[in-house]
Design a protein that fits this description.
301 residues; 21% strand; Nucleotidyltransferase, domain 5; 6-stranded mixed beta sheet; 5-stranded mixed beta sheet; alpha/beta
Length: 301
């Protein structure tokens, strides 16, 4: 049996199809369509008609791709990006009318739990904090605690941090403001106070894009595990803030996420600093992987 999950995020729609045999799950195909809802939002936070059309067309494209590889069921999920759209109901109705499928909107704790389920293998490393860098929110999970109630979803995604400054690139002062906002959010929500973690497990397309820039800048060789050193990440941030050549490395690696990269890098490095973590590991599994696993576990009883 093949199951497909389509994930609606702030910058793209992505598809994951896996073949399921008992408890065995094998990836079949993964696709991503760049659709930044930021460019289609009104000042009042409503998604424009053109934006809704783009979403529906992209979902149709991904559904066709899933059908071509033999997917027997397709599920559409959305996370924080959908929760911040003021005309959410209108978007859901348009998707249902255009595709015949409903959208399952995950709340913050459910999103964080899906991240945890997708990345349970990292619990073997011990003392690890999971950070899913979304668009408008970030999930934060102690990998040693599987209780959904102990997981956090905070409004400190790179798209939210991007609003702290004007223009494409932040200044040194803007960077300080972002770092201060991150720390205040952690302290206000009592996110694992006075704790330290040996490493951060980074999740999400923004994290994967950040690693691409990091690997290019430091000429990192291909590896089965994508690791970043916090001190080196801080050095990269300084380069991205001050160098006249920063646009070249960003456009070369992440042309569709140029505006997300510096806030993503600052968010990852500041949280690693906050919890005295020296290492960051980028996972290639996220919310849709975890949601698919939960569907299979429910199906298997």
């Amino acid at each position: 049996m093949k199951i497909a999950v389509i994930d609606f995020s702030s910058t793209s729609l992505s598809l994951l199809v896996e073949e399921v045999s008992g408890e065995m799950m094998t990836p079949v195909v993964g696709l991503r369509r760049s659709v930044s809802i930021l460019g289609y939002l009104s000042k009042k936070g409503k998604l424009s008609e053109r934006g809704i059309e783009k979403v529906v067309d992209s979902i149709k494209f991904l559904m066709e791709a899933a059908t071509k590889v033999g997917a027997e069921s397709v599920h559409i999920i959305s996370t924080a990006s959908m929760r911040m759209i003021k005309n959410y109901g209108e978007v859901v109705e348009a998707v249902k009318a255009g595709t015949g499928l409903p959208i399952t909107n995950l709340d913050g704790p459910s999103e964080a739990y899906a991240d945890y389920i997708a990345n349970r293998e990292y619990t073997t490393l011990g003392n690890s904090l999971l950070l899913d860098i979304g668009g408008y929110s970030s999930s934060i999970v102690d990998m040693a605690d599987s209780d959904k109630a102990a997981m956090f979803a905070l409004d400190i995604g790179p798209a939210a941090l991007f609003q702290v400054f004007d223009g494409m690139y932040p200044t040194k002062d803007d960077t300080k403001k972002m770092r201060k906002r991150i720390d205040k959010m952690l302290e206000k929500n009592l996110v694992f106070p006075e704790r330290t973690f040996a490493r951060i497990i980074l999740v999400g397309s923004n994290a994967e894009a950040l690693y691409g820039v990091y690997a290019d800048y430091f000429s990192v060789q291909d590896s089965t595990m994508k690791r970043m050193d916090r001190r080196k990440l801080k050095k990269l941030i300084k380069y991205l803030i001050s160098s006249d050549d920063r646009a070249l490395i960003l456009i070369r690696n992440v042309p569709e996420k140029v505006h997300m990269m510096i806030p993503s890098a600052i968010l990852a490095e500041e949280i690693a600093k906050h919890y005295s973590s020296s290492e960051l590991i980028v996972s290639d599994k996220g919310v849709k992987d975890g949601y698919l696993r939960l569907l299979v576990e429910e199906f298997n009883g």
